[in-house]
Design brief:
CATH class of the largest domain: Mainly Alpha
Largest sheet: none
Number of domains: 2
Number of helices: 12
CATH topology of the largest domain: Tetracycline Repressor, domain 2
Strand content: under 5%
Radius of gyration: 22 Å
CATH architecture of the largest domain: Orthogonal Bundle
Mean pLDDT: 90
Order of helices and strands: HHHHHHHHHHHH
Shape: flat
Low-confidence stretches: 21-30
Length: 265
């Protein structure tokens, strides 16, 4: 499931993102007062627990003990709500990193923070990067990453490429990791049982596989992740892809820094 941000009314969305939410209104009885902040936090809780497919104004209203119509006074609709959820969740991430131990160590910390963030909020990976939210926390997180990359002395074009490469490695690996968990929940079939059934059928019905695809066989035999018995293979492979892919990107940044004539000393 892919969700595109920025699909609601642009002025209303920007107003809610940048001018902030009003304080919760007091109301009689045990029910909490409604506010944009309360609604957004509740929507995040719904998405964390049940995924984006379960998100609706009605589902949020039910958690709050209200009707969906009661929410529209605060948030125009689901499209604007997704923007607010996305930006509010990003507030969890640091607004800056210490570069005292060098830019590479700081980028590793940024990547680890991002990895853990996506595992806490896997629905964030379903919000497409094709159209950014353009909210304050989105820019705050980007500013934190740029603050580290600026220490490399690379020109703006190279920094932009580094941002794209780093984000792709972290998001791509985290998506594989979270989807491997979702597959077990949604299908009721463990990863081990799925692979056992498919691999057995492949071995039986695709004779001469190694001869037909020698490099695939080589990669499978020598390039696989180290397997721990208590962790599903695909989760381990995703984590290895995260760590290995990050190291390769950092090596590439270091190589670019080494060839940059005006880099800092």
């Amino acid at each position: 499931m892919v969700v595109f941000a920025g699909q609601g009314d642009p002025r209303r969305s920007m107003d809610l993102l940048w001018r902030g939410a009003e304080p919760a209104r007091r109301s009689p009885g045990p029910r909490p007062g409604l506010s944009v902040e309360v609604i957004v936090d509740t929507a995040i809780a719904v998405a964390d627990a049940e995924g984006m497919a379960a998100l609706s104004m009605r589902a949020v209203g039910e958690r709050l003990g209200r009707t969906a119509m009661a929410l529209y006074t605060y948030v125009p609709g689901k499209a604007e709500l997704v923007d607010l959820m996305y930006d509010r969740a990003l507030a969890e991430l640091p607004g800056g990193y210490d570069t005292g131990q060098g830019w590479r160590a700081a980028l590793v910390r940024w990547a680890e923070d991002s990895w853990e963030f996506y595992l806490r909020h896997p629905w964030m990976l379903q919000v497409s990067q094709a159209r950014p939210v353009l909210g304050p926390n989105e820019y705050r997180v980007l500013e934190a990453l740029l603050g580290v990359l600026a220490r490399t002395g690379l020109p703006a074009r190279s920094v932009r490429r580094a941002v794209s490469a780093l984000s792709s490695v972290v998001r791509g690996a985290a998506q594989t990791f979270t989807e491997s968990r979702q597959a077990v929940r949604d299908t009721g079939l463990s990863e081990e049982r799925w692979w056992y059934g498919r691999a057995g059928a492949l071995e039986e019905l695709a004779p001469g596989f190694t001869e037909r695809f020698p490099l695939v066989a080589w990669l499978d035999a020598e390039g696989g992740a180290a397997v721990a018995e208590d962790v599903p293979y695909l989760e381990q492979a995703a984590r290895e892809a995260f760590e290995g892919g990050l190291a390769l990107v950092l090596d590439g940044i270091a190589a670019a820094v080494a060839t940059e004539p005006d880099r800092p000393g």
